[in-house]
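Reproducibility note. Readers wishing to regenerate the assembly model reported in the main text can use the exact inputs given here. Chain order matters: entities are listed in the order in which they were concatenated for prediction.
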Amino acid sequence: MILLSTPPRLLLNAITCASLLFTAVLPAHSQTAEEKGLAIATEADQRDDGFGDYTADMSMTLRNKQGRESTRLIRSKTLEVNGDGDKSLSIFDTPRDVKGTAFLSFSHRVGDDEQWLYLPALKRVKRINSRNKSGSFMGSEFAYEDISSQEVEKYSYKHLREEELNGMLCYVGESYPVDQKNSGYTRRITWLDKAEYRLQKVEFYDRKQSHLKTLTVSGYQQYLGKYWRADSMKMINHQTGKSTTLQWTNYTFKTGLTDKDFNSTSLKRIR
Amino acid sequence: MVKIENWIGDIVVKYRWLMAPGLFLLAMLAASGMQFLTFSNDSRMFFSEENPQLKALEELERTYTKVENVLYIILPKSGNIFEKKTLAAIEFLTEEAWKIPFSSRIDSLSNYQHTRALEDDLMVADLIRDAKDLSPEQIAAIKEIATTEPMLVHSLIDEKGSITGININIIKPDDGSYKIEEVSQAARDLKQLMDERYPFLDIYLTGGVMIDTAFGDAPRRDMSALIPIMFTFLLLLILFSLRSIFATVATLVVIVLSTVTGLGIAGWLGIVLTPASANAPVIILTLAVADSIHILVTAFYRMRLGDAKHSAIRESIRVNLQPVLITSISTAIGFMTMNFSDAPPFRDLGNIVALGVLSAFIYSVFFMPALMAILPLRVKKEADTKTNRPWAILAEFVIARRTPIFWIMIVMIIGTSSGISKIYLNDEFIKYFDHSYPFRVASDISAEHLAGLEIIDWDLKSGEEGGINDPAYLQTVEDFANWFREQPEVRHVYSITDIMKRLNKNMHGDDPAYYTLPEERNLAAQYLLLYEMNLPFGLDLNNRINVDKSATRMTVSTPNIGTAAILSLERRGRAWLAEHSPSMQTYGSGLSIIFSSISERNIRSMLKGSVIALILISLIMIAALKNIKLGLLSLLPNLTPAFMAFGVWGFVVGQVGLAVSVMIAMTLGIVVDDTVHFLSKYQRGRKEHGMNAEDSVRYAFNTVGSAIWVTTLALVGGFTILSFSGFQINSHMGAMTAITIILALILDFFFLPTLLLKLEGSK
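Running the prediction on these inputs yields the following structure tokens for the assembly.
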């Protein structure tokens, strides 16, 4: 699974890349808020470039307004794809009724992502409707579009301001989904710390411009001396009072995964 | 007591220039609290926090999602939904509805997530998308699905395809930002837009939000419509009976001051007005008239006999202080026992009216006489014999025919009271509002063709995480749903098993033979997972399945069938569960269930209040009359009118609801007044003037007959006007009270004197 916190690479041509970097690092007076927003998003994306692949374990805890909880355990594998969005595979270990179910996702820079679900009880792979990206992932407060690969091209941007959050100076910016018809949001407000370009907080605004959810990311650790990954992500739905927490453990990078580990035959081999 | 009576009369006349303006300022100070009055628009205001059914509903809402709803009903004038332009309109409304503030979910024919097999995949998609491009064949296919799918038919569409509903769930956030007016206004604006864009459709608007809005509008409508009528009526009544402009003005000032004092203090206390308590002004206006009338009638009577104005006022206060005080206290007690009610709006109503009645006493005794002492007042002396002649005739008639009248009264009491057996409890909260409310019309249409707004929710627990996928659990839920579908009063059942069956069919290449529940637990779980993974924003199953998949919510909808039927259905459902799946045993829940039990709860709680009111009022009567026999005797004419009124109601209407549960306590305090006045004069005749029973009856009729008549007219008029309220609780309360007071008057004029004569008169 690919996360908000790990914006994937983007293969831009060298010139664009250099100019964007230039504008991001050196504040030019002629830069518009839109340009600066894009530059920041691009820089954040670039900083995660080259991780190759990684695996991690995730526990997802759903909580309703009454405080009742339910936890799902998921193993995830992610492969960096040059020139396109990442591929990811999530294997569900609990609840026991869906043990062995696997979710395969190819994100794309342009166009709809592709998703499949392997159902062990049927021993079949089923494609999932890509128009549902606004839908809930496994009944959680995370939508697909929240957890899928955050390609830079999927949003347009606007830099708002810089402000301190939890002792870190952050870029605060707005982003607007390009695919407005199928997205559940009209805009997001993101907080990225200036030091490392890590996502700290996101506020989601729904189709009637109401504040729907807030995501808080914490417990960042650095791997391979370069790649930051968070231990905890908490999504609160302000309208329903429900929340979902993701706890990450056992991050392992460069495990040697290849394309062959991310196709429909590989799904059926999973246990 | 005698000393105080004289002393007060003296004080009031002597310090009239201090009393009148001083009390006026005091009233204004109290009235300034009215600026803090607000109106509640929440249908749950009728439930106290300790209401067990409300607690059950709130638990259900915390487990799933607490939602209000806005419901659009669409009726094409052509009678057929399945036309391109109508489908396009449905699609448009479905999209636009997302812009309604606090909307969280839209369910319509167009965004219904239809599932089908496509090669080896499961296709989950909107039933209607891009309606303008649909071919006739596609439309026919959509019609076939819509009118046969158990999730839709009788819920969002009728069998013929002539009417459809679009339901918008509204989530109230906890942060206080929720403004119901914003939601209902946006809903109305959207309806107007639809009306303009699609003139070939009839569009109606209802749902919980619109009902709650109506709850908020009702008091405003009542207050602005009924109070002016009430005021005009009282003005004319007082003018005709007192035949003095100054006296009329003084009386009107008293009732207005009493009303604004009651409301003002309510404002200071932070009481929120509800449709029930917002009628306090009408009731205070009505009740406040009596005190002033009694004092003025006596004063005019003395002046006609030749007394000077000031001594007439003093004498009037002297003879009236005790009965006016007693009637005010007894009325206040009657209203204050509404605090025993389980429904907070009645507690507020009782307290506001009690405040108003007590301030009416103060203004009538201290302010009004002082004002009269200041204002020029003239009375024609010869009027005396004329005005009292009818009362003299009535007195002679009653005395002469005492025996037949007495027995006729007894027969009448028993006869009318027997109608109580025809009374049954029923509350239909939608019918609290008459057809002048647009949502009521919409609800009736919805109830006729679609699911209706009276629902029972069942929180069916499997007892373990993921247990809803257990085939045995699913089978039980399926059986339970099917059992409900066989019940004649059930219109629609929403059950998760319908989704399961369809998914099983879809996963087997849409083979109808597989329209059955999955046979294995993990199969069911994985179908459901796949399905949920395919659902777009706002259409997830979180409002149907709890987080750990251990329970599902089943919804049984009925056309508006009323309390008794809803409760019976719920009881039978519970019995079914007890027999077939004791582990799933639970209570049905929902607003209709709470409304259905509230009358019963209220009547039980008010019974206690009524008994306490009865005891207190009787003790006051005994103490005031200083006579245990007369005090106990007064119970008869005080209590019987309520029973007779219930009897009359039983013969004429039959159905009683929330409103009449507070009736006995409330009317007791009011009807006592006439008895007090009659008995106190009767006793004065016997004691002060040493008359026999017959002469005392004559004395009572002559001195107090006309005052009783006028005040009763005011009361009957006031409560009759209340009965024209568009809000059923108020109109029923008004009608019932008016009937009770009329009966009380009959008893006071015919039964009480003949009873006194039977006991104390000469043969």
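We highlight two features of this model. Chain B touches chain A through 52 residues (CB under 8 Å). The first helix of chain B runs from residue 2 to 14.
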